[in-house]
Amino acid sequence: MRLDSIRFRPVLHLLAIAGAVMLAFLVYAPPASAGDVDFGVRGGAYSDEDQAFLGGEVLFGMDSDQRWYGNPNVEHVFLDTGGLTTYSFDFHYDFTHGSPYTIWAGGGPTLIRRNFDVPDTLNTTEAGVNLLVGVGATQGKVRPYGQFKVIVADDTEAVAGVGIRF
């Protein structure tokens, strides 16, 4: 029996997501003067899929004014016939500063991996670009947020999500 059989596939995907978030943190770790590093979880829906997604993220400040943020993240959609995973390296700009909430806009490159459990179906990986807007809390140990993004690629998708950052 293969390790990536249907029975083990969700576990392997969760391990891949956790590994990708940790790798993104190591690659994009901010300088100590840029501020705190936050972790988060997110969920929502992709417009072209009938299933919800689950993901993880790292958020860190990139400037002393706390306006520019790096936000590498991984999202995985558990499809009936396989899975779709995005590995994104997003950046965004906060329009409000010093208030209990913020509104942001940004974007970044993404890799989209489609895995199919259907025999003779080609698994694919393609590059794309995320364009995003969001609103979220800036104060407290647990900060909820909502975000809408469009993934511009061969198969362009709209994604609505909510999450919490710690």
List the topology elements.
Elements lengths: L8 H19 L9 E10 L5 E10 L6 E12 L2 E13 L6 E16 L7 E14 L5 E10 L4 E9 L1
Antiparallel strand pairs: 1-2, 1-8, 2-3, 3-4, 4-5, 5-6, 6-7, 7-8
First-to-last CA distance = 39 Å
* Structural class by secondary-structure content: mainly beta
Number of DSSP strands?
8
Order of helices and strands: HEEEEEEEE
User: What does the largest sheet look like?
Assistant: 8 strands, antiparallel, barrel
**Gyration radius, in Å:** 16 Å
Question: Overall 3D geometry?
Answer: elongated
Please outline what is shown here.
It contains one helix and eight strands; from the N terminus they run αββββββββ. It is mainly beta. The protein has one domain: Porin (Beta Barrel).
